[in-house]
Amino acid sequence: MAIMRSLRPHYLRPSQPRSLRPSQPLARRFDTSSKDPVANYRDVGGVVDAYVNPEPGDAGKPNKYSATLTQHARRGGAQAMLVPCGVDSAAKLAQPQVGVASVWWEGNPCNMHLLELSEQVKASVAAEDLVPLRYNTVGVSDAISMGTGGMRYSLQSRDVIADSVETVAAAQFYDGLVTIAGCDKNMPGCMMAMGRLNRPALMVYGGTIRRGTLPSSGRTINIVDAFEGYGKLVAGAISQQERAETIACACPGAGACGGMYTANTMATVVEAMGMSLPYSACTPADAKGDECGRVGAAMRAMIDADRKPRDICDKRSFLNAIAVANCVGGSTNAVLHLLAMARAFAVDLTYDDFEDVRRKTPVLCDMKPWGAHLMEDLHDAGGVPGVLSRMIDCGALPHPDALTLSGAALGDVVRDAGIPAGHAIMRPLDDPIKASGHLTVLAGSLAPDGAVGKITGKEGMVFRGPAQVFDSEPAMLDALDAGDIRPGAVVVIRYSGPRGGPGMPEMLTPTSALMGAGLGDKCAVLTDGRFSGGTHGFAIGHVSPEAADGGPIALLRDGDVVTIDAERRLISHDVGDGELAARRAAWTPPAPRVTRGALANYYKSVSSPKYGCVTDMIPGFEA
Q1: For residue 457, what pLDDT is reported?
Q2: DSSP class of residue 448?
Q3: What is the dihedral of CA 565, 571, 574, 579, to 10 degrees?
Q4: Residue 452 β-bridge partners
Q5: What is d(CA 229, CA 92) in angstroms, rounded to the nearest whole number?
Q6: Which of 419, 464, 537, 545 could form a disulfide with 520 if both were Cys (CB 3.0 to 4.6 A apart)?
Q7: What is the distance of C-alpha 355 from the center of its chain?
Q8: CA distances from 13 to 119, 293, 553 (A)
Q9: Nearest CA among 100, 102, 94 for reference residue 15
């Protein structure tokens, strides 16, 4: 594609080993021949920094942020500290500085390779006469922590990522930012930081994992097979040996979980929003070298043009993101994360926007967890640019004129891409999987502030049944083990919301267990927690107000009839007003489950799901 060729650097220079000590005497590295040897370091305008904004005299420079530290005499201490970091000459001090922030750690296949990718990005950035400075942030593996207390840390890690990426880039006065993300919360966390900072920035996705294969049968598998194996074992559908083989082969190497689960969903919407290079979302993790090599030229162009995230991403970009998330059959977490990202980009986005776009957007891509294909298959068929091109052709993308990081319109960037006609991975408009989107926002007597469902239509559009109420995820799993989950029931898992969890844990273990036990099409699941992108079935999450805040879900009892009507976007109960008032009078708010540490901070600061569960919202300043 022309746009990809325009972003390719003319050369790549591998990073060179650097001594911990300067390679030449200090006097030789700084030009002292000028009649005014401190001209490059003199304060301009004599004003005090307005937090981390450029000083007035530096505002038009490519290095307008880092100049605060590198070009003014009063910042000699900062300049001295940068010398052992490789910024050891007048020329280097004058170059724009780019933070390279990766979410690397070894204990997760989604992230285990990101340090290597950051080395490649660093070399690409350095080749463009920019100063790349790497740093790291933290993450949580959703798949590893799923079903345990560790999952409470997952959603709050998104905001920790955003805060830490923002903190380093702001405090160090970086002129640009490259983020390298791998697992579910990484992508929205990085995007939130880029929106807050609003300096030239782009995201590199760590990529999807390759498919797994069972040696005994040759069947293709992925991580959800490992989760559903528990329910199949409980139901006697597989043996311990078959389950062990699945566990050993589901994850063959580095990369994010392979279906259109949360990580791949968020990478897809970030690319659709123009904040990553074309094909970033679908390229497998072991094939990222070319993309990393193109980052430096893209970042150089953005810095030279002063093209910033808020110049690229406006309301049009977010509406495109909603449409794409529906078209590809993406995760319900996209709703939560896009709301949070919109706040960081100062874009007004509400549940109403999701519904307006959903109604006009068909589900066309046949992707796991409920379809047949993995992200690797989408890459082979034409990738996310192919999906976007097909959406434009059939009128399903609201704003092809939205901008991308290159400065070109999205429609122009993907014009030459496509999915081959007749390919099973993406259906034509006249034969959709579902005529309107599956990410459905519901409301009613059970969720006055809203709830979010992943309704593909395969499980039907209406579910009505008696509630089976559990105050925790383990209690529900114990009931399943005992054979006490009844077909036809609405399984309610409450006190799992943002504050009640705390942390709004995902419910992939319960839904996978129900699927494995043969109950996935016989029960609905309702929670004030969240669902993994790997969840399929009749599942409604984000119920708000949550149980811990006294929402109606806290007052449900076993046997109350719950109605979920996706066609009417209604979620309700049959409890009369008098009985409901009596139950409320008898209800006592639960004590916080934690009183110290990260989760206690989250409990105090997290907002409602309708605001994206952000933690930087000051009461009275919600806009």
Answers
A1: 75
A2: E
A3: 180
A4: 441, 541
A5: 55
A6: 537
A7: 20
A8: 12, 10, 58
A9: 100
Helix axes 152-171, 186-197, angle to 10 degrees: 30
Pairwise CA distance, residues 175 & 97, whole Å: 5
Q: Give which of 340, 353, 349, 351 is closest to 617, Cα–Cα.
A: 340
Burial of 158 (0-12, 13-18, 19+ CB in 10 A): buried
Q: In this structure, is the dihedral angle defined by the CA atoms of residues 527, 529, 532 and 533, taken in order, positive or negative?
A: positive
Q: Are 275 and 202 in contact (CB under 8 A)?
A: yes
How many CB atoms are closer than 10 A to CB 203?
29
Q: Which of 102, 157, 164, 532 is catalytic?
A: 532
Q: Which helix (H) or strand (E) holds 603?
A: helix 597-605
Backbone angles phi, psi at 492, to 5 degrees: -105, 120
Residue 340 is predicted with a pLDDT of 98
Tell me the three-class secondary structure of 103-154, residue by residue: CCCCCCCCCCCHHHHHHHHHHHHHCCCCEEEEEECCCCCHHHHCCCHHHHHH
Element containing residue 541 per DSSP (H, E): strand 538-541
Check if 532 is active-site: yes
* C-alpha span between 506 and 532 (Å, rounded): 5
The DSSP string of 464-505 is EEEEEEESSHHHHHHHHHTT-PPTT-EEEE-S-STTTTTS--
Residue 404 phi/psi, 5-degree rounding, is: -125, 175
- Whole-number pLDDT of residue 30: 43
pLDDT at 512: 85
Residues ≥6 apart with Cβ < 8 Å to 569: 355, 440, 441, 442, 443
Asked if 366 and 424 count as a contact pair (C-beta separation under 8 A), the reply is yes
What DSSP string runs through 354-390? HHHHHHH--B-B-BTTTSSB-HHHHHHHTHHHHHHHH
Q: Is 578 helix (H, G, I), strand (E, B) or coil?
A: helix
Q: CA-to-CA distance for 520 and 456, rounded, in angstroms? A: 14
Contact of 154 with 185, CB cutoff 8 Å: yes
Model confidence, pTM: 0.90
Contact assessment for residue 409 and residue 3, using Cβ atoms and an 8 Å cutoff:
no
Residues 6+ positions from 28 with CB-CB distance below 8 Å: none
Q: Give CA–CA dist 67/89, Å, rounded.
A: 14
Q: Can you tell me the distance from the alpha carbon of 190 to that of 273, in angstroms, rounded to the nearest whole number? A: 14
Q: What are phi and psi of 442, to 5 degrees?
A: -115, 160
Q: Which two tokens stand for residue 297?
A: 């030229």
pLDDT of residue 619: 82
Strand 538-541 to strand 524-527: parallel, antiparallel, or no bridges (unpaired)? parallel
Burial track 450-468 (b if 16+ CB lie within 10 A, e otherwise):
bbbbbbbeebeeebebebb
Handedness of CA 430, 432, 438, 439 (dihedral sign): negative
Q: At what angle do helices 333-344 and 315-327 cross, to 10 degrees?
A: 170
202, containing H or E segment:
strand 201-205
Single-letter amino acid, residue 248: A
Tokens coding 134: 């790497």
| DSSP secondary structure code for residue 564 in this structure | E
Using 50 as the pLDDT threshold, list the residues of the chain that sit under it. Answer: 1-50
Contacts for 16 with CB less than 8 Å, ≥ 6 apart: none
CB–CB of 93/75 below 8 Å? no
pLDDT score, position 114? 98
In this predicted structure, what is the pLDDT of residue 36? 43
Element (H, E) at 167: helix 152-171
In three-state secondary structure terms, 131 is strand
> Distance between CA atoms of 524 and 502, rounded to whole angstroms?
23
φ and ψ of 119, to 5 deg? -65, -45
The backbone torsions φ and ψ at residue 368, rounded to the nearest 5 degrees and listed phi first, read -65, 150
